[in-house]
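Students often ask why we bother predicting the structure of a whole assembly rather than each chain alone. The short answer is interfaces. A chain on its own may look different once its partners are present, and contacts between molecules only exist in the joint model. In this exercise we take two input lines together and write out one structure for the complete complex. Read the inputs first and try to guess which parts will touch.
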Amino acid sequence: MCLALPARIVERLDGDQAIVDLGGVRKPVSLALVGDAQVGDYVIVHVGFAIGLLDPDEAQRTLELFDAMAAQAAAAPAAAP
Amino acid sequence: MKYVDEYRDGELARRIAARIAAEARPDRRYHFMEFCGGHTHAIARYGIGELLPPQLRMIHGPGCPVCVLPIGRIDQAIGLALQQRAIVCTYGDTMRVPASESLSLTRAKAAGGDIRMVYSAADALKVAREHPDREVVFFAIGFETTTPPTAVVIRQAQAEGLRNFSVLACHVLTPSAITHILESAEVRQYGTVPIDGFIGPAHVSIIIGSGPYEHFAEEYRKPVVIAGFEPLDVMQAVLMLVRQVNEGRAEVENEFARAVTREGNLAAQRLVAEVFELRERFEWRGLGEVPYSALKIRPAYAEFDAERRFGLVYQGVPDHKQCECGAILRGVKRPTDCKLFGTVCTPENPMGSCMVSSEGACAAHYSYGRFKDAAVVAG
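Now the answer. The structure tokens for the assembled complex follow.
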């Protein structure tokens, strides 16, 4: 129910409306809840509304954290499960 | 899809799993509840439970708004369509939930009720504009994620002077439900719930921020890690919880920093506070009445409140006697402990709340997990 997907804003329309690119599909969404979102930003879309912005730097940091974790695991392998 | 695929790498998941296995102490118990149905679904779908060591168990919480929606509320929506002849708009998730007298919204539609599935709250408003001569009710359910869009359309309806639009508001709150699980009177009936930490909701937290969990982590001494809904997010959050338990910490950590801040979405919070206020009590299917756990429409927007407009009185309806959802939602029992699971109660014909939506603990296990329980018989 709380399903939401990241999508890129490609065009701002009248009022709070915008068009986003959702994995290749263009969809109209409302930006009423993310007033300062710009074209090019990634937003999280839920029931036709962008509910928040994605922070690309934080996204990168989380991916790096996974890599660091994986490297750690490779260096000190766990006992066989 | 960007910001999705990179969080689904199976090889990385296995390596994080190895890390979890290495750090989880064999002599310790790690019972973590994922509150949110989105996580329950991810855990079942990607087989995350299989990647975890035996002393680590995931307990599926009540964070699926379709599952916790009580029968009495669906009965109200059906009544609006069949008796009041209103057009009832609703998210697709609620259509199949069984209600009283063997009805559901789908069956009520087949019986002639004008019930329309909408993707967005904005679509319900559109229906109201197109049918000025009909009453149009939006049956609004969901947690904090879904509440702000409802607030937006109520304000818009007021701005446009739409006199035929109203909302049956069934929006519920995450923090009060988590607290209820830990300290409700029913804990005595079901036994204590051994929970050593929580995975905090992803999209709910985009709205409310990580702040509301701080008081909770401190008061109950339970670690909380907010996580995204992709499998690597969940694995990483489990590892972070294991580390907190090992180090005796009970803090709020945020794995989903790419979308969640401490403050959350302030504009959305302001809108919700303007349109909604707390309900003194609200019935949750499987949990019973939970104080201050839901929202109702403020008097300033009373004309858009379907309960006021149609003089609705709430009537609770008990679940099937043998249904174990109450214990399952609290983590005391597993889906397979229920006599009804997979026999009388299936996703096609759900008896209890956990089987209703694919995010419910029972439905998730039925769809993805039950085959691994079956004995392999050489043929």
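Check your guess against this: Chain A has one helix and five strands.
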